[in-house]
Every structure is written in structure tokens, then in C-alpha cells.
Amino acid sequence: MASTGARAGGGAWALPEWWPLAALIVLAAILRLATLGEQSFWYDEAYTPVHVLHASLWATLRAVVRSENTPPLWYVIAWADSWLLGTGEVALRLPSALAGIATVPVAWAIGRELTGRRTTAIAAAAFVTVNPLLVWYSQEARAYGLFVLLAAVAMLCFLRALRSPTRGRMAAFALAGSLALVSHYFAVFLLIGMVIWLAWEPARRHAALPAIAVLALVGLALLPLISAQGGHGTQWIGEWALSSRLQAIPQYYLTDYYGSSLGHGIELLVALPIVVGIGFGLWRVLTPVEERGALIALAIAAGGILIPIVLVAFGEDYLAPRNLVGAMVAVTALIAVIVPSRRAGRVGIALAVLIALGFTAITIDVDLSPRLQRGDWRGLARVLSRPPRTGVGAPGSPNRTASGASGVSGASTVSGASGASGARKLMPAGVRDRAIVTVELGSAPLEYYMPPLRNLLPGQAIAVREIDEVGYSPLVPAAGTAPAPGFRLLERVDVNGLIAYRFVSPLPRTVSETMLQGDAITREAHSEVLIPGGLRATVAAGA
């Protein structure tokens, strides 16, 4: 290995052998940290600070049992993080970003272990650095970024134990696998392939048994927690057509969570160098070492992806494409072994570069295109937080857009009031007695960005002078019509695809939770009704 400052034969300074890894770590940090707070929280992220994180760790863990469907490790980290840095977007996403950056050197080491080639290591680390899905979950305040890192560490420890099954390496594998299990339940499917491989050969089986026993004990210890959590918040999975979920698995890997907005043409364009590279690498025939490395990566990836698919047939349907993100490091390693394989030569390296460039283009496009980002609930909350005053040049008037009024880019508004003076009579400035009817995915973000809000419960009613209906396309045909007698449309706001209709009344009018639930504007979406925390609800008539 060349050292820093060493001179090559011609007297020029030689770069150290590890310089590509250092460059990739820097690039990974830039891609993850520079835009960490650019997007607002979406539902799952906002739900954590609003409903899960509490002053004490014990209260937080009890909330995890009651309301979450994930093991506790990430929430412990998030609780400590919130104590140190607060609950802002950057603060709560920082652990995921650091985990995403740390995954890059782990991927490098995985590539080295699989083939012993520096080219494989560079390709694996480069793909992890710029892959849109892995960058996406490195910028999300949820457990997925941590899951990816610990799944990668478990894979690396497994490969080292496979090469040299010493007691220390088996212990490292047991520890890494246990941490992966307490970060995400789907880690078990990745570990199944590793355990089978370790136990397959009798000569290695004896050394592997203690590690396998530890993993089994950790898995059994998690069963009471799984039972107590009871699949909270997973009903949406079964409502999503299985065919669409299967299609989303490669789609997510190629173009991230919202990449479907780009269209199938872009997906195919990104997939093309991967498909051609794998085909060319296999056609040129892998070396025996590369073939073994590819088979190991394939076995791990197959366990992480195919086992959850098979379980659907047995009635255990938890197949959400995002739950498979931990398997994507093994998928990436498989591509890194085959595409730039030794016999593929410069063609393989060129195709690997094209793959990395395609991933990078999508990742940058996400930063530039709101349609590829999480819903802008922060921007919408900023608009809704403004008192709905009207008048010439005033916020909310027919001749002024919401983007000009609030500084939210991409927003527009139309007024349903008969005129500026009439609209001013509808809603005096500063009045906050309102109800917000939102799609379920907007409830936690609006509670986070517009505190204090709370749910209006079934059977309750409230007297309000403003009703806001919030959702996104496709809208119901009745969207924009008054939700109750005496209310008039003041404005329609569109903030990067999130739509709100604001209705006002000159006097407080009593509306029930049942009535408001019937006025959701998004087609076939669950809705919730939010009201300011200080408003007093009553029992609805007839409840």
C-alpha cells in the first residue's frame, strides 16, 4: 500500500491506496448533510416527536410498545439525540445521516471480502454513496438508515467469520446480527441466509453454533414485544395491491421512494447499465472467487427479499418495499461483484461508472424537484398559520398568491369570497377557532408544525369560524364545496401538491366530527379532524 507523501518512480507524489474511499465518504457526507433539513417531516417522522418521544426514556419505550411496530434501538438513539439537539428536522435526522455515511466504508470492506479486489470495493462503496434509496433513508428520522448500516455490518462480520471462523469473529457476527435485529424486524430474513451458509459446512458449523444460538435467543426475546405491538399501523400494507408493491421494490432501488413520478422511461434508463453490466459480466464468465462472492451476496439478498414475499402466501403480509431496504446493501454488493468483474475489463468499469452517474443524477434531482420529495407539510402549515385576512394586497386576497404571502414556493391560491370587503367580514384577523380536516398522513406533520393541535374525537362537536380541508390528488368531485351551512370558500392553496381549501363563517357554527369526516377532499383516503388544543369540544347532537 502506498503511503501519503511517498514518491512514485517518476518522482511524482503518489496518492494513498485508500484515497477513493476517503473521497466517497466526503461525497456521502455532502449528499446527506447539505440538504438534511430541506424537506419537511412526513407522517412517520413527525409522529415520533409528537407522540413517541417523551421526557423520560421509560415513557418513550412505553410509547414504542403502544404505537410503533419497530424494535426499540432507533428510538433510544432518537431520545438521546432529542435531549442533546432537540426535535427539529436536522436534529432527528442526523443519526440516520451519520449511519448512511458510515455505511460507505462498510460497503467498501464488504466488496474487499467478497472478491479481494479493490475494484469491487470501490464499486460497492460508490453505489452505496449515491444510490437514491440509500440517500433517501439517510435523510429520514426513522429506523431505516440505522437498519441499513447494521445489516451491512452484520454482512461484513459474517463474511469475515466465513473466511476465518475464529471465536472473536463469530462473536462479532453475533453482536452485529443482534443489533440489526433490535433495529428492524426484517433483519431476521437477512440473517437466515447468513446462518444457513455458516452452518452448511460441518467444519465451520461447530464454531458457528454459539453465534447462531445468541441470534436465536435475541429473536425469541423480541417475540413478546412483537406481540405487544400487534402490527400497529400496518393495515395500509394489505390495502396496497401486491402487484404494485412488487413493482415498487426495484423502482425504489433505482429512483427512490417517490421515483415513480419520473415515469417508467427514466427507471428503464437507470436500470439499463445495471442489466447490461450484469449480462456482460456473466457472459465474460466470473472468476471462481468472484462467482463465490456473487453467490454469497445473492443468497443474502434473496433471503432478505424473497422470504417476506413467500410469507404473504401464508397470510403474513408485512411486505412494504421500504422494509426491504436492509437487503439493498447485499443487492448493491452483488452488482459491484459482477459488473466490474475482472474479465469484464474496461467495459465493465465503464458500465459501473454509468450506474453511479445515473444514481447521482436521480439523487440530485430529488434535491431540486419538489415532486420527488416528501410532502411539504411545513410549507402548508406556514400558509395555514396565517390569519385568513383579506383585502387589497393582503394575504389571502383574490389578487395575491399564497406563495407571495408566506414565502412558500410553488403555492397558489384562488378566492371564493364575493369581494375583498365581504371577505373581511367573514373572518376577522387573528381568529383561531378552526377545524382542520386532513388526510391521515397529514395529521402528525400538522400537529408538529402547528402546535398545539389535537384530534376531535368521534361523537364530539366544536364551534368554529374556519374549516380547512387538506389533502392531495386525486380529489373527490365535491372538493371545494362548503362543508357546512354558513361557510364560504375563502381560498384554495396548493403548496407543491398539497392542497387546502379554507372556508370561513362570520359567526361560530357548531360542526360534528362525523360531519367533518365526510368532507375529506382526497379520494379513498383516511382522514382525521384536528382542532386547536384550547378549544372546548362538546358532545355532538344525537351521539
Distance between the termini: 78 Å
Flag low-confidence runs.
Answer: 1-6, 390-431
| Overall 3D form | elongated
Roughly what fraction of the amino acids lie in strands? 5-15%
Quantity of strands, as a count: 8
Mean pLDDT score = 89
Number of helices: 22
- The helical percent reads 55-70%
H and E string? HHHHHHHHHHHHHHHHHHHEHEHEEEEHEE
Radius of gyration from CA coordinates? 27 Å
Topology overview:
Elements lengths: L18 H15 L9 H10 L4 H11 L5 H13 L3 H27 L2 H13 L1 H6 L6 H20 L3 H15 L5 H14 L1 H28 L5 H5 L2 H14 L8 H20 L4 H25 L15 H11 L6 H24 L8 H8 L17 H5 L4 E4 L5 H7 L7 E6 H10 L3 E3 L4 E12 L16 E8 L2 E15 H5 L9 E6 L5 E2 L4
Parallel strand pairs: 2-4
Antiparallel strand pairs: 1-5, 2-7, 3-7, 4-6, 4-8, 5-6
Description:
The relative contact order is 0.09. The protein has two domains: 340 residues, no CATH class; 163 residues, no CATH class. It is of the alpha+beta class. It is built from 22 helices and eight strands. The longest helix is centred in the middle third of the chain and has 28 residues. Strands 1, 2, 3, 4, 5, 6, 7 and 8 form an eight-stranded mixed beta sheet that branches. The N terminus is likely disordered.
